[in-house]
Amino acid sequence: MLIQLAIRDFAIVDTLDLEFQAGMTAITGETGAGKSILLGALGLCLGERADAGGVRHGADRADLSARFDIAEREEAKAWLAARELATDDCLLRRVVTASGRSKAWINGQPCTIADLRELGECLIDVHSQHAHQALLNEDTHRRLLDDAAGHHQAVAELGDLHRQWHALRRQYRERSENDEERQAKRQLLRYQVEELDQLDLQAEELESLEQEQETLAHLEESLLEAQFAADSCDHDENGALTLLSQATLRLSRVPGSDRGSLSEALTMLNDAQIQLEEAARELHHFVESNELDPQRLAWVDERLAEIHRVARKHHVMPEELDDLHRRLSGELEALDSGDDDLETLRTRLDDLRQQYRDDARKISETRQRTATAFAQQVQEQLAFLGMDKARFAVDVTPLETPQPHGLDRVSLQISANPGQPPRPLAKVASGGELSRVSLAIQVVAASHSTLATLVFDEVDVGISGATAEIVGQLLRRLGHDAQVMTVTHLPQVAAQAHQHLHIEKRSSDDETHTEMAQLDDAGRVRELARMLGGVKLSNRTLAHAREMLAASQSSAH
Hints:
By secondary structure, the chain is α/β, with parallel strands linked by helices. The protein has 20 helices and 15 strands.
């Protein structure tokens, strides 16, 4: 329940502190006095859009706050608790600067405007004077029926399901439309991978082949040179070993003291002979172990040529072929598994469609059941408002195309004259009739509301006389179960209120400001007299107002 509203430097309000009570509160004042300022300030506290034009002229900023008693508002307490905000009280604050920027707080903690709006939906339900215009829109008809059915969560979940379904359907369609291109790419990749599979290039094979080619290409020359070197070392007549043996033998025969001087040279010749014998054995081994193999060389040349050909074909270096093979194989595997993904999408799409239809059918059944009860309740209110001959109906018909809200078209219909079938409101209701139908619907809608505070902003426009008194009785009746605030120009409505707030605009030479105060009984009589039509309050008008107030308050108990 709204218990306090504080307004600073907003519109033509300098400072205004208001306290509200339970029951029905009437808010009245002359046209232009500032009744809309009160609702505008409250709307900003509830997250409505702000602009610099709302700041009082000459002020730096407008500061607005609304305090609510949420002792019995479990939804609001749960919302605050989920965000680790204090739940004993609920204070919404909004500051709008002269530059148009705004800030918001909940229980002293900074918050977003969306947070204000979301929490506000747990606290207040506003019915405006333009509601009858909205009744010409069938979206409003469906929303009203869903409010009465109380399945907002189910409808919201259905909307999410509908969005998932359509997003997945777009994805599946795009994948399917690209299937031909995917098949062509798969065919090319498969050919490329098979070619690289056949090449079967092993790790480090390229380097090994290049080294082998180098060896085989020069083997004949190497063998000839090695054989010559081996022959040069042998014990043949002119071989190095023969000559070296002769030299060693001759030195070993040197007599006397000269032999000692030549001993070191003799040792070196012996060592050289040993080294030369080893070299000869290595050379002979090389010649004997290597054999010319033209066929092997030809195969190596062909293998290298094939490797280079495939590399050129794929525009890579030969040493990059192994990485290319792995990459293309991965792409082909991904495309092959894409067929499974497409089938998975198809299955998921079918599941979502079936789930949507099952949930939509349940919502349709609830709407059908609620439509009868809702129409009966509005019918009763219309009779109370003097339209006892009218027949009200809620038509729920299936849609051909699934929508986020379901498979139903909801149309509020009325027959104002006996014998005529109900037709859509926009086609049959006159302005005055539409105002009364709108009020009847709003009263029924409010009776289904679980919110503690209901605001009616001049919903009685176009109504007068005895019907106006009945409207007041309806609003007072709602005030027994909820806090009802109604902005009205009708004394018959204001007289029914439990409390009466009066708004007055005062002007001086250089300033205009708005004041608001709760009226006592004497003040209520004077205000009702003014509303009855007197600029000058005569004794007769005052007596009429006093009688109206007394009758309304006594009959309402």
